[in-house]
Amino acid sequence: MMKQIFGLIVVIILLNACAPKPYAETNKSYKTQAKLYAATIKETPVVTANDSLLLPPYFVGTTNFNLRKPSFVIIHHTAQNTCDQTLKTFTLVRTKVSAHYVICRDGIVHHMLNDYLRAWHAGNSKWGNMTDINSSSIGIELDNNGFEPFSDAQINSLMSLLSKLKNDYTIPTANFIGHGDIAPTRKNDPSILFPWKKLADAGFGNWYDSKTDSIPANFNALQSLRIIGYDVKDTTAAIRSFKRHFMQDSTRRLNDSDKAVIYNLMKKY
Predict the structure, then answer these.
(1) How far apart are CA 101 and CA 119, in angstroms?
(2) Residue 65: helix, strand or coil by DSSP?
(3) pLDDT digit string (tens) for 78-131?
(4) Smaller CB count within 10 Å for the chain: N or C?
(5) How far from chain centre, in Å, is Cα 91?
(6) Is 25 an active-site residue?
(7) What CA–CA distance (Å, rounded) separates 267 from 228?
(8) What pLDDT does 14 receive?
(9) Rounded CA gap, 144 and 95, in Å?
(10) Which of 25, 43, 141, 148 is labelled catalytic?
(11) Which CATH superfamily is domain 68-207 in?
Protein backbone atom coordinates (compact mmCIF):
# COMPACT_ATOMS: atom_id res chain seq x y z
CA MET A 1 0.00 0.00 0.00
CA MET A 2 2.79 2.42 0.94
CA LYS A 3 4.60 1.64 -2.32
CA GLN A 4 1.45 2.48 -4.28
CA ILE A 5 1.05 5.79 -2.44
CA PHE A 6 4.72 6.62 -2.96
CA GLY A 7 4.40 5.77 -6.64
CA LEU A 8 1.35 8.00 -6.96
CA ILE A 9 3.21 10.91 -5.33
CA VAL A 10 6.11 10.46 -7.73
CA VAL A 11 3.73 10.48 -10.70
CA ILE A 12 2.06 13.70 -9.46
CA ILE A 13 5.44 15.38 -9.00
CA LEU A 14 6.55 14.37 -12.49
CA LEU A 15 3.28 15.56 -14.02
CA ASN A 16 3.64 18.93 -12.31
CA ALA A 17 7.23 19.22 -13.46
CA CYS A 18 6.20 18.49 -17.03
CA ALA A 19 3.09 20.67 -16.97
CA PRO A 20 3.19 23.51 -19.50
CA LYS A 21 4.26 26.88 -18.10
CA PRO A 22 2.89 29.36 -20.66
CA TYR A 23 4.39 32.44 -18.98
CA ALA A 24 7.81 31.02 -18.09
CA GLU A 25 9.70 33.54 -20.23
CA THR A 26 7.78 36.61 -19.08
CA ASN A 27 8.07 35.43 -15.47
CA LYS A 28 11.85 35.45 -15.93
CA SER A 29 11.57 39.04 -17.09
CA TYR A 30 9.49 39.92 -14.02
CA LYS A 31 12.06 38.41 -11.67
CA THR A 32 14.93 40.13 -13.47
CA GLN A 33 13.29 43.54 -13.23
CA ALA A 34 12.38 42.99 -9.57
CA LYS A 35 16.01 42.10 -8.76
CA LEU A 36 17.22 45.26 -10.49
CA TYR A 37 14.89 47.43 -8.43
CA ALA A 38 15.88 45.56 -5.26
CA ALA A 39 19.54 46.23 -6.05
CA THR A 40 18.79 49.92 -6.54
CA ILE A 41 17.01 50.14 -3.19
CA LYS A 42 19.95 48.45 -1.43
CA GLU A 43 22.46 50.96 -2.77
CA THR A 44 23.84 53.47 -0.27
CA PRO A 45 22.61 56.96 -1.25
CA VAL A 46 25.38 59.05 -2.77
CA VAL A 47 25.26 62.79 -3.45
CA THR A 48 27.16 63.70 -6.58
CA ALA A 49 29.61 66.49 -5.84
CA ASN A 50 29.44 69.78 -7.69
CA ASP A 51 30.54 73.34 -7.05
CA SER A 52 27.40 74.26 -5.10
CA LEU A 53 27.27 71.31 -2.67
CA LEU A 54 29.29 70.77 0.49
CA LEU A 55 29.63 67.03 1.19
CA PRO A 56 30.25 65.37 4.58
CA PRO A 57 33.21 63.04 5.10
CA TYR A 58 30.97 60.05 5.85
CA PHE A 59 27.50 58.63 5.14
CA VAL A 60 24.74 58.78 7.75
CA GLY A 61 21.68 56.67 7.03
CA THR A 62 18.42 57.29 8.83
CA THR A 63 16.93 54.49 10.90
CA ASN A 64 13.36 55.67 10.31
CA PHE A 65 11.84 54.50 7.06
CA ASN A 66 9.66 51.87 5.45
CA LEU A 67 8.26 50.97 2.03
CA ARG A 68 5.81 53.27 0.33
CA LYS A 69 2.30 51.85 0.54
CA PRO A 70 -0.77 52.31 -1.66
CA SER A 71 -3.58 54.56 -0.50
CA PHE A 72 -6.04 54.06 -3.38
CA VAL A 73 -7.60 51.10 -5.17
CA ILE A 74 -8.65 51.68 -8.77
CA ILE A 75 -11.12 49.20 -10.26
CA HIS A 76 -11.23 48.52 -14.01
CA HIS A 77 -12.90 46.21 -16.47
CA THR A 78 -10.58 44.74 -19.07
CA ALA A 79 -12.68 45.52 -22.17
CA GLN A 80 -11.44 42.18 -23.51
CA ASN A 81 -13.21 38.88 -24.05
CA THR A 82 -11.20 36.42 -21.94
CA CYS A 83 -8.89 36.37 -18.96
CA ASP A 84 -6.17 34.73 -21.06
CA GLN A 85 -6.36 37.61 -23.51
CA THR A 86 -5.78 40.11 -20.69
CA LEU A 87 -2.91 38.10 -19.17
CA LYS A 88 -1.22 38.11 -22.56
CA THR A 89 -1.80 41.87 -22.94
CA PHE A 90 -0.15 42.50 -19.57
CA THR A 91 2.89 40.38 -20.46
CA LEU A 92 3.68 42.05 -23.79
CA VAL A 93 6.25 44.83 -23.42
CA ARG A 94 4.84 46.81 -26.33
CA THR A 95 1.42 47.29 -24.67
CA LYS A 96 2.92 49.30 -21.76
CA VAL A 97 -0.09 48.49 -19.57
CA SER A 98 -0.41 46.39 -16.42
CA ALA A 99 -2.29 45.93 -13.17
CA HIS A 100 -1.54 44.46 -9.79
CA TYR A 101 -4.45 42.03 -9.97
CA VAL A 102 -6.62 40.44 -12.65
CA ILE A 103 -9.81 38.70 -11.51
CA CYS A 104 -11.27 36.24 -14.02
CA ARG A 105 -14.97 35.57 -14.54
CA ASP A 106 -14.69 32.31 -12.58
CA GLY A 107 -13.23 34.15 -9.57
CA ILE A 108 -9.59 33.13 -10.05
CA VAL A 109 -7.30 35.96 -8.91
CA HIS A 110 -3.98 36.56 -10.68
CA HIS A 111 -1.62 38.65 -8.52
CA MET A 112 0.61 39.97 -11.30
CA LEU A 113 2.68 42.59 -9.49
CA ASN A 114 3.92 43.17 -5.95
CA ASP A 115 1.63 45.70 -4.26
CA TYR A 116 4.56 47.99 -3.43
CA LEU A 117 5.59 48.30 -7.07
CA ARG A 118 4.08 50.79 -9.51
CA ALA A 119 1.75 49.30 -12.13
CA TRP A 120 0.75 51.10 -15.34
CA HIS A 121 -3.02 51.06 -15.08
CA ALA A 122 -4.30 54.58 -14.40
CA GLY A 123 -2.68 56.46 -17.28
CA ASN A 124 -3.40 60.16 -17.69
CA SER A 125 -5.78 60.69 -14.79
CA LYS A 126 -6.68 62.94 -11.90
CA TRP A 127 -8.52 62.69 -8.59
CA GLY A 128 -8.68 65.78 -6.43
CA ASN A 129 -5.23 67.36 -6.66
CA MET A 130 -3.53 64.05 -7.42
CA THR A 131 -2.29 63.45 -10.97
CA ASP A 132 0.23 60.60 -10.59
CA ILE A 133 -2.28 58.03 -9.44
CA ASN A 134 -0.16 55.05 -10.53
CA SER A 135 2.31 55.94 -7.79
CA SER A 136 -0.21 55.73 -4.96
CA SER A 137 -2.68 53.06 -6.05
CA ILE A 138 -3.35 49.39 -6.64
CA GLY A 139 -4.97 48.54 -9.96
CA ILE A 140 -7.51 45.71 -10.16
CA GLU A 141 -8.75 44.52 -13.56
CA LEU A 142 -11.99 42.54 -13.82
CA ASP A 143 -12.31 40.21 -16.79
CA ASN A 144 -15.32 41.80 -18.48
CA ASN A 145 -15.88 43.23 -21.96
CA GLY A 146 -17.89 46.16 -20.61
CA PHE A 147 -21.28 44.99 -21.85
CA GLU A 148 -22.04 42.06 -19.56
CA PRO A 149 -22.93 41.60 -15.88
CA PHE A 150 -20.11 40.82 -13.48
CA SER A 151 -20.30 37.23 -12.21
CA ASP A 152 -21.02 36.42 -8.57
CA ALA A 153 -17.77 34.44 -8.33
CA GLN A 154 -15.82 37.42 -9.63
CA ILE A 155 -17.43 39.93 -7.27
CA ASN A 156 -17.01 37.57 -4.30
CA SER A 157 -13.29 37.28 -5.05
CA LEU A 158 -13.07 41.05 -5.48
CA MET A 159 -14.71 41.68 -2.11
CA SER A 160 -12.33 39.28 -0.37
CA LEU A 161 -9.35 40.93 -2.04
CA LEU A 162 -10.54 44.43 -1.16
CA SER A 163 -10.96 43.43 2.47
CA LYS A 164 -7.36 42.22 2.59
CA LEU A 165 -6.01 45.33 0.86
CA LYS A 166 -7.97 47.67 3.09
CA ASN A 167 -6.65 45.94 6.21
CA ASP A 168 -3.08 45.56 4.96
CA TYR A 169 -2.63 49.17 3.86
CA THR A 170 -5.28 51.05 5.91
CA ILE A 171 -6.89 52.35 2.72
CA PRO A 172 -9.62 54.93 3.49
CA THR A 173 -13.18 53.96 2.57
CA ALA A 174 -13.49 56.86 0.11
CA ASN A 175 -10.40 55.74 -1.84
CA PHE A 176 -11.96 52.77 -3.64
CA ILE A 177 -12.89 54.26 -7.01
CA GLY A 178 -13.17 53.42 -10.69
CA HIS A 179 -10.97 54.08 -13.69
CA GLY A 180 -13.77 56.14 -15.22
CA ASP A 181 -13.84 58.32 -12.09
CA ILE A 182 -10.20 59.34 -12.46
CA ALA A 183 -10.14 59.55 -16.27
CA PRO A 184 -13.64 60.74 -17.24
CA THR A 185 -12.70 61.94 -20.73
CA ARG A 186 -11.00 58.67 -21.68
CA LYS A 187 -12.48 55.76 -19.77
CA ASN A 188 -15.84 54.29 -18.82
CA ASP A 189 -14.78 51.36 -16.68
CA PRO A 190 -16.07 49.68 -14.76
CA SER A 191 -19.37 49.85 -16.64
CA ILE A 192 -22.78 50.88 -15.34
CA LEU A 193 -23.37 47.20 -14.51
CA PHE A 194 -20.75 47.23 -11.77
CA PRO A 195 -22.27 46.85 -8.24
CA TRP A 196 -20.75 49.90 -6.54
CA LYS A 197 -23.42 49.99 -3.83
CA LYS A 198 -22.64 46.42 -2.78
CA LEU A 199 -19.01 47.40 -2.38
CA ALA A 200 -19.89 50.58 -0.48
CA ASP A 201 -22.13 48.63 1.90
CA ALA A 202 -19.05 46.55 2.76
CA GLY A 203 -16.87 49.63 3.32
CA PHE A 204 -15.24 49.94 -0.09
CA GLY A 205 -16.17 53.38 -1.41
CA ASN A 206 -18.64 56.05 -0.31
CA TRP A 207 -22.33 55.96 -1.14
CA TYR A 208 -25.18 58.37 -0.67
CA ASP A 209 -27.79 58.02 2.07
CA SER A 210 -31.19 56.53 1.30
CA LYS A 211 -32.78 59.81 2.38
CA THR A 212 -31.20 62.93 0.94
CA ASP A 213 -31.58 66.51 2.13
CA SER A 214 -33.16 69.34 0.17
CA ILE A 215 -30.76 71.05 -2.22
CA PRO A 216 -29.72 74.55 -1.06
CA ALA A 217 -30.75 77.40 -3.36
CA ASN A 218 -27.14 78.33 -4.05
CA PHE A 219 -25.97 74.73 -4.62
CA ASN A 220 -23.19 74.38 -7.22
CA ALA A 221 -23.19 70.80 -8.51
CA LEU A 222 -19.93 71.09 -10.46
CA GLN A 223 -18.09 72.58 -7.49
CA SER A 224 -19.40 69.71 -5.37
CA LEU A 225 -18.21 67.15 -7.92
CA ARG A 226 -14.78 68.77 -7.70
CA ILE A 227 -14.87 68.45 -3.89
CA ILE A 228 -15.71 64.75 -4.24
CA GLY A 229 -12.63 64.35 -6.43
CA TYR A 230 -13.77 64.59 -10.05
CA ASP A 231 -11.82 66.56 -12.62
CA VAL A 232 -14.49 68.99 -13.87
CA LYS A 233 -12.43 70.60 -16.62
CA ASP A 234 -14.67 68.74 -19.07
CA THR A 235 -18.01 69.18 -17.32
CA THR A 236 -19.92 66.73 -19.51
CA ALA A 237 -17.35 63.99 -18.95
CA ALA A 238 -17.36 64.58 -15.19
CA ILE A 239 -21.17 64.39 -15.02
CA ARG A 240 -21.28 61.18 -17.07
CA SER A 241 -18.59 59.61 -14.89
CA PHE A 242 -20.47 60.50 -11.70
CA LYS A 243 -23.76 59.17 -13.10
CA ARG A 244 -22.15 55.95 -14.28
CA HIS A 245 -20.78 55.28 -10.81
CA PHE A 246 -23.60 56.42 -8.55
CA MET A 247 -26.75 56.45 -10.69
CA GLN A 248 -25.96 53.52 -13.06
CA ASP A 249 -26.90 55.87 -15.85
CA SER A 250 -24.96 56.91 -18.96
CA THR A 251 -26.75 60.20 -19.67
CA ARG A 252 -24.99 63.57 -19.53
CA ARG A 253 -27.41 65.95 -17.80
CA LEU A 254 -28.07 66.45 -14.11
CA ASN A 255 -31.63 66.34 -12.82
CA ASP A 256 -32.78 67.27 -9.32
CA SER A 257 -32.33 63.69 -8.03
CA ASP A 258 -28.76 63.63 -9.31
CA LYS A 259 -28.03 66.97 -7.64
CA ALA A 260 -29.48 65.73 -4.34
CA VAL A 261 -27.14 62.73 -4.48
CA ILE A 262 -24.14 64.94 -5.27
CA TYR A 263 -25.00 67.23 -2.35
CA ASN A 264 -25.31 64.24 -0.02
CA LEU A 265 -22.02 62.72 -1.21
CA MET A 266 -20.13 66.00 -1.10
CA LYS A 267 -20.73 66.21 2.66
CA LYS A 268 -18.91 62.87 3.11
CA TYR A 269 -15.63 64.21 1.64
Answers:
(1) 10
(2) coil
(3) 999 999 999 999 999 999 999 999 999 999 999 999 999 999 999 999 999 999
(4) N
(5) 18
(6) no
(7) 9
(8) 43
(9) 19
(10) 141
(11) Peptidoglycan recognition protein-like (3.40.80.10)
